[in-house]
Amino acid sequence: MRPNAAAGARHWRRLCLGALLWLGLTALAVAQAIAPSPSERQAPVAISRQAGGLPLAWHLQVLDDTSRRLTLDDVRQPEWQSRFALPDDPLLGREADRVLWFKFQLRLADPADAPQEWLLLVPSVSTHEMRFYGPFAPDGHALAEPVVTGMRHPWRTRPASSEQMAWRFHLPDAQPYTVYVRAESTFSRVYDMRVWRTADYLESTQDKRMFDGISYGILIGLLVYGLVLLLVFGEAIYVYYLLSCLCALGAIAGFNGHVLRYPFANWPWAAGVSYTLMPALWAICKLQFGRRLLNLRQFAPWLDRLVVGLLAALGVAAIYGLFGPHPLLTFNLVQASVVLASAVLLAGAIVAGRRRYWPAVLYCVGVALLLLAVGAIVFASWGWLSWRPGQMNLTQGALVLELVVFAVATASRLRLVLRSEQALAVHNLELVDALRTDSLTGVASRAGLEVQADRWLREGRPFAVLLLDLDGFKAVNDRHGHAAGDAVLAALAGRLRESVRDSDLVARLGGDEFALLVAGDPHREALAALAQRLLAQAALPVDWEGQGLRVGMSIGIACRPQEGDSLDALLRAADRAMYHSKQQSHAPGFSFAGDMATP
């Protein structure tokens, strides 16, 4: 590298590192500026109408119920009240199969809002059970009965008919009121709870519903596309693409809460099974589709074996998720497998793309998009990133977009297959033509003669067969060599083609023997005239290295259907006539099979 270029590269690296450092420090400063102080976090939250809802995560006091048996009366005792704590970063934490109690205080910012109905939204659809207690007035009495809902309960238990966990409540005045929430889930964490005015929340869900509707519509369209490909071509790759779309549709519907709301509103156990199985089945089908699209068995066998191992792990995880005592392990395995498999398939796509397999480039784009989006969810569930409700929408959009890119990659593969088949068909035709053509003379071979004769026989068409044998050809070969003999054969073949019509066929049967198929039902006089022209052409010398090489010709003529109704019969008849012509030195050089006595 030249000195100026090296200096420029170092300059750009310094600029990039400086920009990244500045962004990191800025993000840290913003986060510290947003985070309230401990005294502010413990104070009652003044609720009012706010765009996007009023966030409560920083004000949630959390108690981890390791026994999973604490009741509301237990946690309200001083012994347990002292164990509620404010997490340092509430939205940064690992998911775990546990029971969490949340405690927070609310008050009206404006007493005039007392008639308003408020909604506490918990952005989760995977919580097994959610219990809402309160609000409790300062004197300790509850303003409403407890509300119990969750994935283990039918849809009718949802107080706000929301796909996510939501709770309706009223505050009669500006006093501070205490709320307790008990969450039992395989994926428990501190949730980004928000308080909404009910009407505002219902209005805000319109965009989400439109986004979900578009996503489902695209997936259904891709399902139809995959089904058409499967019905037309019947390849296994289209089965896996079709199943990938179907399982992706089921997984997204489960994550959005629509599986419990619509098909299994009264069978929460069925919604739970779907929620557990669909992500694993989607990952399995996605891997199988990727293996076949990228042709890993051919391009990268070691990567193919690794993907097979991941498939086995996912299959075991799916079964364990239904019957095992720790279903979170299933999701951890699915998450890890999806990330690892996406990275593996990304490597496989790069390997295949380097070999100019263009569908791999499109596949690479689709996998990279999903890897980035799924990575945000996976890293958040592992406690590496903060949770944000929009992360699920990002993953949903990336999953749909990945399948769209896969559809384009499938179309690209289909074009390659069709082009390959067309090239193969052309090659086959060339091979067939080569088999049907005599390489020395360029006229038809015996195979070409048989194909044409069989076609005319199937069509019931009359035709005549002329069998030609060269006289004195062996002497030319012996005296002048095989090159001279080949020159004579090629020259005579060209003269024969010029002497017949385009509808007739000239063929070389081998050695110095030729045959003609004359279409139609020519009269004896026409065939005799044709034979005379052929004999005259044969009598002309062939110029070879300044010498005039001469040969003679004997012709036998047989007609269909008079002398036979098959090519073999006609050739035998013409052969008898030809030898009769050879034996008659005073004969004109041709004979009709019809004039010969049947042996």
UniProtKB/TrEMBL annotation:
The chain crosses the membrane at residues 214-233, 238-255, 267-285, 306-323, 329-353, 360-385, 397-418. The keyword Hydrolase does not apply. The keyword Ligase does not apply. SUPFAM superfamilies: Nucleotide cyclase. Keywords: Membrane, Transmembrane, Transmembrane helix. Residues 461-595 form the GGDEF domain. InterPro entries: 7TMR_DISM_rcpt_extracell_dom1, 7TMR_DISM_rcpt_extracell_dom2, DGC-Regulatory_Protein, GGDEF_dom, Nucleotide_cyclase, Rev_trsase/Diguanyl_cyclase. This is Diguanylate cyclase (GGDEF)-like protein. The lineage of its organism: Bacteria, Pseudomonadati, Pseudomonadota, Betaproteobacteria, Burkholderiales.
